[in-house]
Amino acid sequence: MEHLPKCHANYTPLSPLDFLLRAANVYSGRTSVVYKHLRFTWEQTYLRCRRLASALRSLTIIKNDVVSVLAPNIPALYEMHFGVPMAGAVLNTINTRLDAGNIANILKHSGAKVFFVDYEYVGRAREALKMMIASNKTHSTAVLPLVVVIDELDAPTGVRLGELEYESLLAAADPEAEIHQVEDEWDPIALNYTSGTTSAPKGVVYSHRGAYLSTLSLLLQWEVCSEPVYLWSLPMFHCNGWTFTWGMAARGGANVCIRTPTAAELYKAITEHGVTHMCCAPVVFTILLEADHGRLPHKVNVLTGGAPPPPSVLQSVENLGFHVTHAYGMTEATGPALVCEWRKEWDRLPPAHRSKLKARQGISVLTLADADVRNKNTRERVPRDGVSVGEIVLRGSSIMKGYFKNVKDTAEAFKDGWLWTGDVGVVHPDGYIEIKDRSKDVIISGGENISSVEVESVLYKHPAVAEVAVVAMPHVLWGETPCAFVVLKKGEDGEGVGEIREEEMIRFCKMNFAGFMVPKKVVFMEELPKTATGKVMKAQLREAARRLKPAPMSNGNNRQPVTQEHVLAVSRL
């Protein structure tokens, strides 16, 4: 077969940029982006992205330069997912909840040449740039990026950080100028920094090939129809919106952008625009349930991930009209890596049983060559019995290229031909994987391994519990014991439901599982500390738990309200 070589007719590099060109050609008149009262078509979005690419080239951006952006889910951020790589550059979307120090670290580490900043974040961006200047005077030679402010589209504020502004930049650019052509699908398209970035950040590099394949895989397994109306309740900065930034172009869908995913904004968008699909972390379910909106006028498909949702919460949110599909992923896997693909025979099961099945993380996405659970010491796969635990491992074309400027951690992540995720799980007899915990979150009490997720699932069944996180607390006898941080549901007056005591929560746990799994301490909070993607910051809770003592069982009121600010303060000690 050697006489059948590759040529331009039968081989082109895979890139999600092709989705936009196709959308402009075949869906030109369809709505592409909705923001407040503004609407764009796919033809308009394509031209705006070409203008952005042209503008970046005029700012001397060349292949593989990094372009950073700090912005909420707005049209400009969506356009950058195409316009930046169309200029040959690499897109770096920054978590909007990071402080100035972390933003400065990312800008320095990435070597960003241009920094786009939404007007709401100009103050934080200014502080980050000041930190970079101060650092340059002492021990760094990092060059400051060129700053471009993104002003409000429908009502410009005039806020600036320098002279450049996004819309003005686009207006002056030539949409017919030549754009970068992808010649190698292994070229980088995006640089995403992992959650909890510190002074030694991990920058995850995505390839055009990985982004393209991940996008198609999720569209297929989530069964995204033609002309979806997609609500941006998930931050686009998180794994490039789980690749649905590119996916909506592939399906000719409408992107409904909202700046803040409050319950009011979410329900308003769903009703006004006929939303068919949305993604979110389980924390958004709590927001939706507490709003007491009532049943939706139509079904909304939800892809959720980021933390294992309790079956009871899944059942409650589905009663509102949301059809939930559970997924599991990580930044290093270009978003979702497992999807709980639904089986028709499960429809005949009781609701509680269905919710328990939905809470599993599922089977590998189509772009993975394999996903497994393996013993980290022996490297052998664990039995498919739903009980034997091991570490979840992945391999396939959708896995990251590696960590930017970090050979050591890249080699550590890629061992024996697998990406080792750090998540502990089991494989059920039907082949579906279920996470039991992060390896660092497993509680070892008296030699027994306790899954914090299992303890949390039981506590979620208590009628007064809105949110809960369980971490290890030091114990003089057992080494470690579970400590539960609980947020109570709010009553009509906005106060916690009743006078729930610590002893009551502990007794509730004793009625539901073995004694060694029962929390020895319950702390009541106003809210749990979370990342911008809805993940509970368990490292902060573990630090707080280190300074607590097991609860004495007494007849007194041991309820101890603790605010998120208190936990943050304790974590800095």
Automatic annotation (TrEMBL):
Signal peptide limits: none
Domain AMP-dependent synthetase/ligase span(s) in chain numbering: 22-404
Keywords, in A-Z order: Ligase
InterPro entries cross-referenced by the UniProt entry: AMP-bd_C, AMP-bd_C_sf, AMP-binding_CS, AMP-dep_synth/lig_dom, ANL_N_sf
Its EC number(s): 6.2.1.12
GO BP term (any one): phenylpropanoid metabolic process
UniProt-listed Pfam families: AMP-binding (PF00501), AMP-binding_C (PF13193)
Species annotation: Dioscorea zingiberensis
Catalyzed reactions: (E)-4-coumarate + ATP + CoA = (E)-4-coumaroyl-CoA + AMP + diphosphate
Classification via PROSITE patterns: AMP_BINDING (PS00455)
Similarity comment: Belongs to the ATP-dependent AMP-binding enzyme family.
Domain AMP-binding enzyme C-terminal: 454-535
Superkingdom of the source species: Eukaryota
Molecular functions per Gene Ontology: 4-coumarate-CoA ligase activity; trans-cinnamate-CoA ligase activity
Name listed for the protein in its UniProt record: 4-coumarate--CoA ligase
CDD domains the record matches: ttLC_FACS_AEE21_like
